[in-house]
Amino acid sequence: MEPDLHLSSKTCAPGSAHRGAMSTTTHTTHPASHPASPEGHDWREAGEAWGSGAVDWACLFEHYAVNVLLVTMDRLHVGEGTRLLDIACGSGLGIRFAEAAGAETAGIDAAESLVRVAQARSPRSDVRHGDMFALPWADASFDAVTSVNGIWGDCEAALAEAYRVLRPGGRIAISFWGRGRLDLRPVFKVFAANSPESHQQGMRRTNNIARDGVAEAMLASAGFEVLERGSRLSMVEWPDADTAWRAIATLGPAQPALRNVGPEALRPQVMAVLDGLVDDSGIYRFCNDQEYVVAQKPT
């Protein structure tokens, strides 16, 4: 399997969700009563990587998740009064979808700069900066949990935390890059070829979730009952080469390569791949198979 788009440690973990008004202050919590991140997952390092281009990510790439959000919000029965937590919420697209359906929302992400964007977009949502392996919310605080490309292989501890904060009968939906069309594959090969070996090993490990039965087994080990697995096509479009490069350069897995060889060396290699995706109108169209799994906490 090829490297993933979201590092498994990208997410975070803070906040205290309450029905009604939720805090909008940017702050980080480190609950001492929760276990530390698993070995090899450094949420602070991941947050620095994903937050390095927060504005471009929020405006040029985050909408890659629209199609999977549409289906998972439906499967989670998100509606008026639903208490929803978005793990690895990024700049808040999933939160906005849930708010539009009438939900009371909370979110958490490792990148403080992305959290600030999410808070500005959804000031009534309880969006926090922290670690997904140490969620500070009380047991059974939420009716639904989402994580769009935020929980990857070796992240069973994050699913255990999601299980804890869900009420009995509550549902979770996670997504990840699948096994169909993956325009990201050659791009990520470029990133990997220009990154330190240690980073390549981490990407291979976290992407194991896409293999048959792995996501289901992870959810089951946390106590969930798996309900459905499906997929949607993720699509992002850019009008020109400069915009395409700005978007791709915000991705977390790009950062080790950018630090290692610099943008002057990396950009020509990446654009050689992306130039093959230009249509007759000059649009750069970046499409990827995005799989999702929906599960439920037993009543």
Walk me through what this model shows.
- The structure is a single chain.
- This protein is an alpha/beta fold and about 300 residues long.
- It has a domain at about 45-180 and about 200-235 and about 290-295: Vaccinia Virus protein VP39 (Rossmann fold, 3-Layer(aba) Sandwich).
- The protein is built from twelve helices and seven strands.
- The protein has helices spanning about 45-50, 55-60, 65-75, 95-100, 110-120, 155-165, 185-195, 195-205, 215-220, 240-250, 255-260, 265-275, and strands at about 85, 105-110, 125-130, 140-150, 165-180, 225-240, 285-295.
- The chain has a seven-stranded mixed sheet.
- Strand 1 (about 85), helix 4 (about 95-100) and strand 2 form a beta-alpha-beta unit.
- The model is unreliable at about 1-35 (pLDDT under 50).
Strand content: 15-25%
CATH C-level category of the domain at 43-182 and 200-235 and 289-296: Alpha Beta
Helix content: 25-40%
What oligomeric state do the depicted chains represent? single chain
Tell me the span between the first and last alpha carbons: 36 Å
Q: Tell me the CATH superfamily of the domain at 43-182 and 200-235 and 289-296.
A: Vaccinia Virus protein VP39
Strand line-up in the sheet with most strands: 3-2-1-4-5-7-6
- Radius of gyration based on Cα positions: 18 Å
Structural class: alpha/beta
CATH topology label of the domain at 43-182 and 200-235 and 289-296: Rossmann fold
Total number of helices: 12
Order of helix and strand elements from N to C terminus: HHHEHEHEEHEHHHEHHHE
The CATH architecture of the domain at 43-182 and 200-235 and 289-296 can be named as 3-Layer(aba) Sandwich
Point out poorly predicted stretches.
1-36
C-alpha geometry: globular
Give the tally of β-strands. Answer: 7
The largest sheet is: 7 strands, mixed
Q: What's the rounded overall pLDDT mean?
A: 86
